[in-house]
Amino acid sequence: MLNDQAPKEALPYGKKAKPFDITGFLKRYGLLVLVIGSFLFTLAVPVVLLIGKPNYEAKALMRIDPVIPSLITKSEDPSIINYYQDYARTQAKRMMQFSVLEQTVLKLTPEEKAAILPPLLPADKCANILGIIIKVSPLNGTHLIEIKVASPKKEGLAPLLNSFMAVFLEKVRTNTQMQDNERLVYLRNKQESLVSEISSIEDELTQLTQDIYTASFTEDYNLASKKTEELQKLYVKSLGERISAENKLLETERSNTQIKALPLDAMIDEMVMDDQSLDFTSSWTYQQLQQMRSSTDGLTKNNPDRIYVEERMKGMELYETKLKDDIRANAQQILYGKREHDLEKENIKARNHFENTVGAENEILAKLEQNQKEGTRISIGMHLGQALEARLKHKRELLDRIGTRIHELEVEGKAPLRISVESPAREPDKPAGSNIKKLMFVFFALSFGSTAGLFLAYDFLDNRIRRPEDIQNAFGSPAAGIIPKAIQDTNPEKPSQPLAMTDNVRHAIQSLAVLLKREHQQHHASIILCTGVERSNGCSSIALGIAQSLSQLLPNVLLIDADLSHPSLASMTEVPASHIGLSDILTADVSWKETIQTSPENNFDLITAGKASQSDIAQQGIAPLLEEARQCYDLICIDTGPVLESTLTEHLATQADITLLIALGQSTLYRDLRKAGEQLIRLNVAAIAPVLSWGGVTKSISIDHLLKQKPDFLDKVSTRKFEDFLRSIPSARDLYGKAQKLAGTLIRKKPESSNKENQE
Question: Where do the H-state alpha helices sit in 462-589?
Fold first, then answer.
């Protein structure tokens, strides 16, 4: 079964076009093709013997040397031993080029051309003829190529072959020379380009030498690099001196700071004590004071002389004290000033020495940096010079090689060709044979090919279902059931007896009923719709047989005849056609239970099509009817018309749980089956079960019907043109009417054994 899980616009399963069955074709038409083809070939044998003519053949040989002697060069391998066969086949193909054939025609004289070719035919048309009559093939095990030409006339064959070989050799030589000329032009242009590039490189080297002052591009000649090494050593030395001077300056400043903190009182006292003027003054003052004290002895304190003397003594003491203070101040000033001077002098010397070392270091560093830049520039220049020298060397070597190659090509242009004429063609003395074998083969192919082609076209255009595999190709899954044909030759729609079938037909219908019962148990499928792709396909008989088989498996089964335009179940079950049925339920206020018919011969209930007018049918009553019937019956089987012809069938399909789509073998078209499946898919039916029936009324297909039902790929070709094409085939013109009648007879009156083979 096929569940609808795909887009609704087309059938998502199976193949769109019916595959060609080569085995079935051979079974159906193989013997007929053999008989008709043999008959036509027998008629053609006298014609072949009548139009057969002798055939003259001329031959020539050309040699391909696997090794040719080289002149002065070894640049190319002159040997083709490793690929000789490929080379020989390539040259054989080149000989048959249109340009060679056309030049051969133009090289022939008017007499030579008239002897072998139509004299008034243009050269290009004659070249096409030569492409057919001239054969070129390498001879295995040799170094030779054989060239043959055959014609009913022996005149002109040898000149034709000789001219053909001469034209080809001239073309090979011209191609070789043109190839060498193209090489020489390219090499000379390359040579001029290399000379220009070499001159440009030399100019760059000259300019570079002037910039870096050397023509040797190695680091041994980089003077700036060596100077940088010396400056680096000098800079390290100056750096050490600068660090030493800096430390000395710091040490001096630190010592001076500490020395300045020391007091000089002892030195000042020493200088005061060592001062002679102070000592003399003190001695003289002491003497004078002693004298003055002695002069005041005996004088009262208020004595003016004593007062005067004492005041003079005080003045002298004050003078001594002042002198001592002055001497101390001078000594202090001198000692501190001298110490300050000495310390400052040491600072100045240390600072000057430090500044000198810093200046020397900076100067050396500046020169070092400047020299490093110069060394880097020279190093870059040396790298560039090395690259330029390498390029110059490569260009000069390439220039020498190109010059050598130009000389070699100029010499090789005069070398002999690898291909030469081994044996020229001669006029044939006697015929080499006749064209009877070829004519026999041609007429044999036409006799059997045209016959097989007609039947092949007929079978290819015949779109009918012929085998169970067609059902699988159409739906992507095998048929749910295959109903074989009964032995009685009865109309399945109106049999003389109900279910007048053979055991194999009854067994097939019962197997299908078992399948439907399993679907009822597993998926609760309770409404089965039986419809067909076309009329007269046995749908009613199959529906009746399924209902009777299901009545033996389930207690309550209802059969409804919904084919209101062509009702048949009433006559099959011997129920009066005038009895009320489905149409009366849908058009009048009639209960569906009142229309149920029961029969002692059948174990199921039946609702016939009824007698009401179909124009008054209201389809909106179908859904409530089926819903009520579903509650009363285990399974409901509905017989209806083809889905492509009835909207009532489409409505019932949307209500059914399983839709049995019946295709009639040897009658239903593959495209109609696909169209019916697509229609059901668009209706979003619950499940589709295709059934192949070999009963029913099969229809023969005429040639005109086939032309109307041409395949999809012939839609762009009009029917009239296609029919004219079939009728224009010479071997088919006389057999057209006979093949049509014979094919129709085979379809309508095939033996029973063939039907059984198709069923199997």
Answer: 468-475, 503-523, 539-551, 569-572, 582-587
Query: Which range is least confidently modeled, 49-58, 110-119, 199-208, 718-727?
Result: 718-727
CB atoms within 10 A of CB 198: 16
Question: Which amino acid makes up residue 520?
Answer: H
Give the mean pLDDT of the chain: 76
Assess contact for 560 and 638: CB atoms under 8 A.
Answer: yes
Residue 687, strand partner residues: 3
Region 646-663: what's the mean pLDDT? 88
User: Could you tell me which residues come within 8 angstroms of residue 587 by beta carbon, excluding any fewer than 6 positions away?
Assistant: 612, 613, 616, 617, 618
Question: Pick from 694, 704, 679, 702: which is nearest to 754 by CA?
Answer: 694
Q: For 152-199, how does the pLDDT look when each residue is reduced to its tens digit (9 = 90+)?
A: 777 888 888 889 989 988 888 877 777 677 778 888 888 889 899 888
What residues does 719 pair with on adjacent strands? none
pLDDT higher at 221 or 150: 150
CA distance 649 to 32: 43
H-state helical runs in 108-216: 110-116, 123-133, 157-212
Cα dihedral angle (673, 675, 677, 680), rounded to 10 degrees?
A: -140
Question: Burial of 277 by CB count in 10 Å (0-12 exposed, 13-18 middle, 19+ buried)?
Answer: exposed
- Answer whether 272's CB lies under 8 Å from 278's CB: yes
- 273 Cα distance to chain centroid: 119
- Rounded to 5 degrees, φ, ψ at 463 are -95, 15
pLDDT digits (tens, 9 = 90+) for 467-499: 888 787 778 778 877 888 754 444 444 433 333
Q: Is the model's pLDDT at 431 over the cut of 80?
A: no
- Cα separation, 508 vs 530, in Å, equals 16
Question: Angle, nearest 10°, between helix axes 223-260 and 304-412?
Answer: 160
Mapped to the 3 state alphabet, what secondary structure does 17-56 carry?
A: CCCCCHHHHHHHHHHHHHHHHHHHHHHHHHHHHHHCCEEE
Q: Are 61 and 146 in contact (CB under 8 A)?
A: yes
Distances (CA, A) of 336 to 92, 191, 260, 262: 125, 95, 9, 10
Tokens of 491: 């109309």
Asked if 78 contacts 64 with a C-beta cutoff of 8 angstroms, the reply is no
Provide the β-strand partners of residue 63: 144, 420
User: Phi and psi for 535 in degrees, rounded to 5?
Assistant: -75, 160
Alpha-carbon span 698 to 692, nearest angstrom = 13
- Residue 704, number of CB atoms within 10 A of its CB: 11
Q: Could you give the C-alpha distances from 513 to 66, 477, 508, 528, in angstroms and in order?
A: 81, 19, 9, 10
- Give the per-residue pLDDT at 637: 93
User: Structure pTM?
Assistant: 0.46
Residue 620 to residues 592, 596, 626: CA-CA distances in angstroms? 14, 20, 11
Residue 614 confidence (pLDDT): 61
In angstroms, what CA-CA distances link 451 with 39, 701, 706, 732, 747?
11, 19, 17, 7, 18
Query: pLDDT of 253-294, one tens digit each?
Result: 888 888 777 777 777 777 767 766 666 666 776 676 677 767
| pLDDT tens digits for range 192-212 | 898 998 888 888 888 878 777
**pLDDT tens digits, one per residue of 370-382:** 887 877 777 777 7
Amino acid in position 326? D
